Amino acid sequence: MSILNKFRGKSLWMLHYCTGCGAIEMPPVMTSRYDMERFGIIPMATPRQADILLITGYLAVKTLKRVIRTYEQMHSPKWVVGFGACTVNGGMYWDSYATIKKLELYLPVDLYIAGCMPRPEAIMDAFIELRKGISSGKYEGWKKYIENYDWYKKNQAKLFDVKKWSVNYE
Amino acid sequence: MSDFITRLKNITGLNIHKEKLYQASLKVDKEKIRKTLLDLKKEGFLQFTTLTCIDWIEEKTFQLVYHLWHREEKLHLKVKIDIDRDAPIVETVSDIYIVAQTYEREVKEMFGVDFKGNKRLIPFILEDWNEIPPMRRDFNTREYVKDMYETEDRTEEIFKPRWKKYD
Amino acid sequence: MNINILYAALAPIVAILLGLLYIGIGRKIIARLQRRYGPPFYQQYIDTIKLLAKKTVSSHGVFFSLGPIMGLAGSMVTLLFIPFGSAAPLLSFHGDIILVMYLVVIAPLGMALGVGEGSNPNGSIGMARGLTLMLAYEVPFVLALFSVVLYTHTTSIAQIVQSQAGEWSLLKFHGFNWLTFALPISAIVADICLQGMLGEKPFDQVIAPHEIASGPMVEYGGKYLGMMVINHALHIYIETALFVDIFLGGGPVWFFIPATFSVFILSLIINGVLPRFRIGQALKFYWGVPLILAVIGIIYTMVVIK
Question: What is the structure's pLDDT at C102?
Answer without folding.
Answer: 85
